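Example 3.2
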Amino acid sequence: MRKIGVATENGQVAQHFGHCPEFTIYDVKDGQVKAKTVIPNPGHQPGFLPRFLGEKGVNCIIAGGMGPSAQELFAQQNIDTVIGASGPTDEVVKDYLSGDLTLGDSACHH
């Protein structure tokens, strides 16, 4: 089972990972979404969210934008990062799983 976390704002991929209001976590088995859970963002503190999401079993995070230090912290947790995504979270995850996800530039430049 894989778990994909998506930085979420109003059902859409949030453009700034650390400041999103919530995360949508998708449980995926055999390439299909089996469950979806929305959890509130517990707060943006350097280094906290990669550990927090890792403890939830997330092994891939999708966001509109993410700074390089956050990407490095996720890599240290063996969590893949997919940045530059936009659109409704359900559609983005479906496209990601099918290999059809189109990514733009990271929306986060700091």
